[in-house]
Specification:
Distance between the termini: 64 Å
Number of domains: 2
CATH topology of the largest domain: Rossmann fold
Number of helices: 10
Largest sheet: 5 strands, mixed
Strand content: 15-25%
Shape: globular
Oligomer: single chain
C-alpha cells in the first residue's frame, strides 16, 4: 500500500504541475502533455475528490507504515493544493462568460443545464425530452460514407411556430482525429431541450485528404441539412454552425466561403 500511495502521489504531482505549465518538446511529449493537462483541467474537481478518497483508503489500510507511504502522502497533499489552484483559476472564466453573454440571457422559463451532468459527465446522453438519431448518411465520397447524428426534441413544435432553428456542430481534432460521437453532445442536448434541432457532422480527416476537402465535406453536410429541412421540421434559412478547435476553424471557413463555388463543386 505504501508504494501504491507513492505512485499515486508522483502521478498526481506530475499531472497537476503539467496542467499549470504544459510541457513542450517532441511529438510524444507534447501529445501526452496536451491530453494530460486537458483531462486534469476539465475534471479538476473530480480528480481532487477521487484523489482524496483514494488517499484516505490507502492510509486506512496501512500505507503510512513505510517511509514510501509518508512521501506519497506529502506528494498527494501537494497535488491537492495544485488542483485547488487550478480549480479556482478556471472558475474565473465564469465572469468572462457572463460578461460576453450579458445580452443573451435565456428566459427564466428556459431549461437549465442539469447539475447532475456536471458532477457525472457520463450522463451526458441522458437528457429528458431529447432524442438522438445516429449515423445518417449524407454523402459518399472516395469510398467513404459520411454520416451525421441528429439531436432533436421529442415534443411537437410549439403552436404558432412553423419551424425550429437548427444547429450544425463540427468536431475538432487537428483535422486528423475526432468523431461526432465525442464532441458537442452537452451543447446539442441542451439546445434540443430548448427547441433546437442539432446535427453533429463527420468529415474526412487528414492525411487521407487535404484542404479543402474537409471544408467541402461539411458544406455537403450543410446542403443536406437544408435539403431535408421538411423532414426534420427546421427552418432552412436559420441554420447556425459551431465547432471547437479545428472545428472552430472550419466553422469560420464555412461563414467566410458561403456560396463560393470553389468550395462547393457540383452542388
Amino acid at each position: 500500500m505504501s508504494w501504491l500511495l507513492l505512485l499515486l502521489g508522483v502521478v498526481g504531482v506530475v499531472h497537476a504541475a503539467n496542467a499549470l505549465a504544459p510541457r513542450k518538446g517532441p511529438t510524444l511529449v507534447f501529445a501526452w502533455s496536451f491530453m494530460a493537462s486537458w483531462i486534469t483541467i476539465e475534471l479538476v474537481w473530480h480528480h481532487l475528490f477521487l484523489g482524496a478518497l483514494a488517499t484516505g483508503l490507502l492510509v486506512y489500510f496501512g500505507a503510512l507504515d513505510e517511509p514510501a507511504g509518508v512521501l506519497g502522502l506529502v506528494l498527494m497533499a501537494i497535488t491537492g493544493v495544485l488542483l485547488l489552484v487550478i480549480g479556482f483559476s478556471t472558475g474565473k472564466t465564469r465572469v468572462t462568460m457572463h460578461g460576453a453573454l450579458v445580452d443573451l440571457e435565456p428566459e427564466p422559463s428556459a431549461p437549465r443545464y442539469p447539475r447532475s451532468h456536471v458532477v457525472l459527465p457520463f450522463l451526458v446522453n441522458q437528457r429528458k425530452g431529447v432524442r438522438r438519431l445516429r449515423n445518417i448518411e449524407f454523402a459518399r465520397l472516395g469510398g467513404r460514407h459520411l454520416r451525421l447524428d441528429v439531436t432533436r426534441p421529442t415534443a411537437p413544435v410549439p403552436a404558432g411556430r412553423a419551424r425550429r432553428p437548427a444547429l450544425m456542430q463540427i468536431h475538432g481534432g487537428g483535422w486528423v482525429i475526432g468523431d461526432k460521437r465525442e464532441q458537442g453532445l452537452p451543447l446539442l442536448n441542451h439546445m434540443a431541450a430548448q427547441g433546437w434541432v442539432g446535427f453533429n457532422v463527420n468529415y474526412r480527416l487528414s492525411p487521407g485528404v487535404a484542404f479543402p476537402d474537409h471544408l467541402i465535406d461539411l458544406k455537403r453536410g450543410l446542403a443536406w441539412i437544408k435539403e431535408h429541412a421538411d423532414e426534420y421540421g427546421i427552418d432552412p434559412d436559420f441554420v447556425c454552425v459551431t465547432g471547437g478547435s479545428a472545428g472552430g476553424h472550419l466553422t469560420a471557413l464555412m461563414g467566410l466561403t458561403a456560396n463560393d463555388p470553389a468550395y462547393q463543386p457540383g452542388f
